[in-house]
């Protein structure tokens, strides 16, 4: 099994060029850090993440700081792009179509 398969058993989007150095950084993440990373990539607030994972907001901040240090990525947008590239989140996780249909405005 390659490092890439070990890091992303659910499958990696092969259209992204991910360096082996970055892959080794991802392998060092704890399962909880990966959960936090996924929720950050889904644009969840610290409060929403803490509620979803039943942890304190301070713990969420600590995990986000650990992610940024371990992955050497220092803003949420780049964390999101990296999560998409690594298969942590995918298009199926973003519900744009159904969100757009929930609006109360109906054009005439």
The percentage helix is 55-70%
For the terminal residues, how far apart are their CA atoms?
Answer: 56 Å
Number of helices, where a helix is a run of at least 4 consecutive DSSP H or I residues: 7
Q: Provide the CATH top-level class.
A: Alpha Beta
Structural class: mainly alpha
Radius of gyration: 16 Å
Number of domains: 1
Query: Might you state the CATH topology name?
Result: Rossmann fold
Globally, the shape reads globular
Order of helices and strands: HHHHHHH
The residue ranges in which pLDDT falls below 50 over 5 or more consecutive positions are 97-108
Q: Please tally the β strands and state the result.
A: 0
Biggest β-sheet strands, sense, barrel? none
For the residues shown, what is the average pLDDT?
Answer: 78
Instruction: Based on the coordinates given, report the CATH architecture.
Output: 3-Layer(aba) Sandwich
- CATH H-level homologous superfamily name: Response regulator
Strand content: under 5%
Characterization of this structure:
This protein is mainly alpha-helical and 108 residues long. It has a single domain, classed as Response regulator (Rossmann fold, 3-Layer(aba) Sandwich). Helices cover 59% and strands 0% of the residues. It contains 7 helices and no strands. Residues 97-108 have low confidence and may be disordered.
Annotate the secondary structure layout.
Elements: H1 3-7, H2 20-27, H3 31-41, H4 46-53, H5 57-71, H6 76-86, H7 96-101
Helix pairs in contact: 3-5, 3-6, 4-5
